[in-house]
Amino acid sequence: MKQTRRTFIQSTSAVVGALTVPKLISEAQAANPRKKYNILYLCSDQQHWQAQGSVDPFFDTPHQDALSAESTVFENAFCTTPQCSPSRSSMLTGFYPHRTEMMNNHGASGGTDLKLPTIGSHLQEAGYTTALFGKWHLGHNVDGNAGWDEERKKGPDPKTTELGVDFLERRAEDDKPFALFLMYLDPHDIYYYKPGESKVKIDDVDLPESWAKQDFESVPPVHREFMELNQGSFIVGGDEDDWKGYRDFYRQKVKLYDDHVGRVVAKLKELGLWENTIIVNTSDHGDMDTFHRLVFKGPFMYEHMMRIPMSIRVPGSSGPKRTDYNWVNVDTVPTLMELAGAKVPDCQGQSAASIVNGSKDVPERDYVIGQYYGKQTWVSPIRSIRWEGWKYNLYTDWGEELYDLKGDPEEIENLAKDPKHAKVKRRLRKRLDRWIKENDDPFYSLTTTKLDPNEAKTILSKSKQDASA
């Protein structure tokens, strides 16, 4: 059953409940028809969609590349928001941050404890043994934390892999299917980069076009504030080698995550579980990676913030190796539940299982909505719509951005004030406002707060704490 945009908004629950379970039977399942597919969910932290060797050879990710070659790769995959806690709340519940009530990171302004049931609870009800090891960052509410037969909701990454491998070894012979979620911290450790001190190799590093052409006068002033008065201040005024060092340090952290992927996948194959396990590889949000002379993540909605890696491998699948479907991480819950042959819960996401299994009847999403609330006590709400090759960003107090993604893929020229593009801007704004109204998004009631320059060190320290949590 195809879904139009209006069908998705008005009757998501009815549609996803009617979607059929894919008929994908591997050799392992044929030998044990009572057993459903296992699920292995691999998630990095702060990895943008280009940070894979299969997309950009600058990055060294052989294990993720090999996994992508065996998977359906969603080339247009997005997070709901470029912040850890709210994005993770979306991927694990199927709801946008304003519905999960986690609009900001846990413990920050607008950030609370996740109170909704997660996919862990849904999979338990479907007969799965569930486990989550690694970063959680969603608070301590009993309902939000339920659903995991085994858990260790903190790092470091080597411990996460150790626990994941041990879980696979203990569950390899079970008749009951398992769902193992490994939530890694890297490349979030980019926050430890120190120009002139960190060990980096910059001989092969190029800086992006937008680094050279960034015009902070043409974009909302919060971009400049973030760099000069907030987390970016450590590198403002640095020379090209400092910025190149950032890119290599980030590349190193991506490689560390890839090494963990390799160890877990190797163990899966060693135990004979490869042909009976669905494997997801993704991230919670991106990193600016020096694009636009920006670092880390902050109050901006560029592609390197919003676009994420996303691939799903289903044994025996006849689906495409690549798809341009607009995946949003609220689709995680309905997609995995359908692939598991289980009831799909009501949520704001839609199942993409039919894409993975090669069905002709696939879901549609003609535009993507992004949300942003703030960092710690610095609140700067933004809404974004990506539609028909254009992106429009609306700030509560700081203006607008309009980018032609086809003609200007690095989003260098802000066309929001160009009268030649007033018509397309009005069309995008109208569609965005309709989504806000239909989804009870409180955007227009949110209040911007001023940046406290004294908070910069606290924010950076908190980011490092989150990385080691």
Automatic annotation (TrEMBL):
UniProt xrefs under SUPFAM superfamilies: Alkaline phosphatase-like
Limits of the Sulfatase N-terminal domain: 38-342
Pfam families: Sulfatase
Keywords: Hydrolase
GO molecular function: arylsulfatase activity; glucuronate-2-sulfatase activity
PANTHER family cross-referenced by the UniProt entry: ARYLSULFATASE K
The protein's name: Sulfatase-like hydrolase/transferase
